[in-house]
Design a protein that fits this description.
Layout (H helix, E strand, L loop, with lengths): L3 E3 L2 E4 L11 E6 L1 E4 L2 E4 L3 E3 L5 E2 L2 E8 L5 E7 L3 E5 L2 E4 L7 E8 L5 E5 L11 E8 L15 E3 L2 E4 L2 E5 L8 E11 L9 E3 L16 E3 L17 E3 L10 E5 L2 E5 L1 E2 L3 E3 L24 E4 L15 E3 L4 E6 L2 E6 L4 E5 L28 E4 L6 E4 L15 E4 L17 E4 L6 E7 L2 E6 L2 E9 L3 E9 L9 E4 L2 E5 L4 E4 L3 E3 L5 H5 L11 E5 L4 E6 L9 E6 L12 E4 L8 E3 L8 E6 L9 E2 L6 E7 L5 E2 L5 E2 L3 E5 L13 E7 L2 E5 L2 E8 L7 E2 L5 E3 L6 E7 L1 E8 L5 E4 L2 E7 L4
Parallel strand pairs: 2-3, 6-51, 15-49
Antiparallel strand pairs: 1-62, 3-53, 4-5, 6-50, 7-50, 8-9, 9-10, 10-11, 12-13, 12-18, 13-17, 14-15, 14-18, 16-17, 19-27, 20-26, 21-25, 22-23, 22-26, 24-25, 28-29, 29-30, 31-32, 32-33, 33-34, 35-36, 36-37, 37-38, 39-40, 40-41, 41-42, 43-44, 44-45, 45-46, 47-48, 48-50, 51-52, 53-60, 54-59, 54-62, ...
């Protein structure tokens, strides 16, 4: 019988069923569509043997006046600079704490640091040790601490905290010696959480002298106390806790009416709606779980009955004022780092950078950017009174004087000013798109355009019900912005447009919208595609992606040219396009691995990020030089013998492979099913191994519907599919 050509339109269609998506591909991973044809994406390789501690959340490439190229990288713990194949730690530091002492316990790796006054340090903070002298008998030397970073493990009192060494002490020594502490400016948690209003970290508020201890014994998920046998919670020590109040263990609040030296008494488990979901019981907690004073937090708000409060992750805004990097911690301060000074790589970002100070900037801002034409530093969701973080208004905008990023007082002779937006509850993000600055709230889009004196900037609302889901979920290319909202995709080219998506149901049925601040968007102009990486329900971090090809001819595709995937090796937390560098750069995060830079003694649970260069080779090259195979596949719709004749069974005798590009082997699987709701079954002899010399493949496939799957499973393989020509014959009715 004559060969039949089965045609497929570009892109993936999951809005319909596998049978209903006629002429479309219905599933894929690590595949893009170029010139209408599916192909495996390019590979990537690590740029460094070092890996980054924590999760990278923002990258910015920029160039100094001498033409040197940099990439600023903001993580949940650090601000780093990538320069000529190396990483440099430029994270700003808080004020020094001098004359701290150290105490050790024989055979224990835990050391207790004591300060003369409240240190304001919290669990998870990073502290640099300097000018170290030790008391005798610890078994350690000063070099074990000098110029090293430590992660704070517990904070037993406002004047103490503990760290973990790489080895155990050889003696018990009371507090002694002398250490200068250099605490890192905190950024925020690695993952976004959504739930109760009590905060148990210092993100979004100010806590002085947080009091913590640990459980002495496990705590069952019941309404009683330790082990379910009483009405008390037993801990190592209740010192410095109020006589009565509230404690927090993980996501549970527990009130108490009195205390002994090691117990909280008269307890009420699961207070203020923090019990196990669907019950009146508490939550289960293991021995040594951290118990924190939650009686009086400043800046966090009180716990609430419903899960309506979001604790946003540690994010950075990164922009450049010429060769000066401007870095703002979300809901925190703004710092600068000058690439134009000789000692730049050994100098940390600061609020007092010579010539580029930001010590007069707001101290609580959601995000910042620099207007590239007028050179104003603009703060979004910032303080109405500079220096008073409790006046932060999530809809308030403040901009500096032009050419002076440290001057904000509006005067007749300058261009500083303010503006409050109205439609929405918070400003989610902003970016530059040609002559406009685009500003998104959680509900709308505004344009911000320079108009000159006396108003400096004019604001116009250009869209509603089109808010941004996360700070990094918008991207711009050639004056057109693309973004992800809470319930759909949009573009702006002078007009807000809804962006029809053939994967919309698949994305929004699975996405965890309460973790929208972790979503990031990236442009790959080499292939005219914008990609969003996002977390699904039940995942703490990004684990899927969806991509839109804006450069292909999509006129005949009412839902556009979209594709996506779930391959964990392909998930990215940041992405920068190939502008300053010839290829895109991106970071991938592994929450269970351990990073190597910056080195932290006693690090626990921070995970690691790897910096990759993309569109290189065919696979993933890891920091240690090993190769991880990059697999890929694309699956077609389920087609019948003839349109409107699905009652006739088909027999597939043979097919002719047709690849535009084929390196190494490829596998073709013929899936067969008799009913639309039935799962596909591999046909006899499937899968078929295809290489460049394969001209014909004989099959033994029979069914009412058939589907083809193109994939690679081995290293060094690349492919671009062409057409599918097949020998189909009617095989009667059943």
């Amino acid at each position: 019988m004559a060969l039949t050509k089965i045609k497929f339109a570009p892109g993936i269609d999951k809005q319909d069923t596998a049978v209903g998506a006629e002429g479309r591909w219905v599933d894929s991973d690590n595949v893009r569509f170029r010139y209408g044809l599916p192909e495996k994406v390019g590979g990537w390789q690590s740029l460094l043997t070092d890996t980054i501690v924590g999760v990278a959340r923002k990258m910015l490439p920029f160039v100094d006046n001498d033409g040197n190229r940099y990439v600023a990288i903001g993580t949940d713990k650090f601000l780093l600079v990538y320069f000529e194949g190396q990483l440099f730690d430029v994270t700003p530091l808080k004020a020094d704490i001098t004359s701290a002492t150290i105490a050790t316990v024989d055979t224990s790796a835990t050391c207790t640091i004591t300060t003369s006054s409240a240190h304001g340090i919290n669990v998870g903070d990073i502290v640099l040790f300097d000018s170290v002298t030790l008391p005798g008998g610890t078994g350690f030397s000063a070099s074990d601490f000098e110029d090293k970073n430590f992660q704070v493990i517990t904070v037993p009192s406002p004047t103490t905290f503990t760290i973990t060494m790489g080895s155990a002490a050889s003696g018990t020594v009371a507090a002694g010696g002398s250490i200068t502490l250099k605490p890192y400016e905190p950024v925020g948690p690695a993952a976004q959480s959504y739930g109760y209003g009590f905060g148990i970290g210092n993100y979004g508020g100010t806590i002085t002298g947080v009091v913590q201890t640990e459980l002495d014994g496990s705590l069952n998920a019941d309404t009683a106390g330790t082990g379910g046998s009483g009405t008390a919670v037993t801990v190592d020590s209740t010192t410095d806790f109020p006589a009565s109040g509230t404690i927090a263990i993980a996501n549970e609040l527990i009130t108490y009416t009195s205390k002994s030296s090691t117990q909280f008494l008269g307890i009420t488990r699961g207070a203020l709606g923090t019990a196990t979901i669907g019950t009146s019981n508490g939550q289960a907690h293991s021995t040594n779980a951290v118990v924190q004073n939650a009686t009086d937090f400043t800046g966090f708000g009180s716990a609430v009955e419903a899960s309506t409060v979001t604790l946003e992750p540690g994010l950075w805004s990164l922009s450049n004022f010429g060769e000066v990097l401007i870095a703002t911690v979300m809901n925190g301060k703004t710092f600068t780092w000058n690439a134009g000074i000789a000692a730049r790589l050994t100098t940390r970002a600061s609020t007092t950078t010579s010539g580029f100070a930001t010590n007069n900037n707001p101290t609580a801002t959601r995000s910042t950017l620099v207007s590239p034409t007028t050179r104003h530093l603009i703060h979004f969701g910032t303080e109405t009174t500079i220096g008073s973080s409790d006046t932060q208004d999530d809809m308030f905008i403040r901009f500096s004087e032009d050419e002076n990023i440290n001057a904000y007082t509006p005067e007749a002779t300058n261009t500083a000013g303010t503006q409050r937006l109205q439609d929405g509850t918070k400003i989610m993000g902003a970016l530059v798109a040609k002559e406009n600055i685009l500003v998104w709230t959680d509900n709308s889009l505004y344009t911000m355009k320079f108009v000159g004196a006396p108003f400096t900037f004019g604001f116009e609302q250009v869209g509603t019900n089109c808010g941004l889901i996360g700070q990094n979920a918008a991207i711009e290319i050639d004056g057109v912005a693309y973004w992800m909202g809470n319930n759909g995709f949009f573009s702006f080219d002078g007009t807000v447009n809804s962006l029809p998506c053939s994967l919309e149901d698949d994305v929004y049925d699975n996405i965890d919208t309460t973790k929208g601040q972790q979503i990031n968007a990236g442009i790959n102009n080499l292939f005219t595609e914008v990609t969003w990486w996002y977390p699904t329900s039940g995942s703490d971090f990004n684990n899927r992606y969806v991509a839109y090809n804006y450069g292909e001819d999509n006129a005949r595709l009412p839902m556009g040219n979209w594709y996506g995937g779930t391959n964990t090796n392909s998930i990215r937390t940041t992405w920068i396009d190939s502008l300053i560098y010839p290829k895109p750069y991106a970071t991938a995060y592994n929450s269970t691995a351990t990073g190597t830079f910056p080195a932290i003694v006693g690090e626990t649970g921070l995970g690691r990020s790897v910096l990759f260069e993309h569109e290189i080779g065919t696979d993933q090259i890891n920091p240690d030089g090993s190769t991880t195979t990059l697999t890929s596949f694309v699956q077609s719709f389920s087609f019948s013998l003839q349109k409107d004749q699905s009652e006739i069974f088909l027999a597939m005798r043979r097919f002719l492979p047709n690849f535009k590009v084929l390196t190494g082997n490829n596998q073709v699987t013929i899936g067969i099913t008799d009913f639309p709701a039935e799962s596909l079954s591999d046909s006899t002899l499937s899968p078929f191994t295809i290489n460049a010399s394969t001209n014909k493949v004989d099959t033994r496939a029979r069914g009412r519907y058939a589907s083809i799957k193109i994939e690679n499973t081995g290293s060094g393989e690349a492919w671009r599919f062409g057409t599918f020509q097949v020998d189909l014959q009617p095989d009667g009715r059943r």
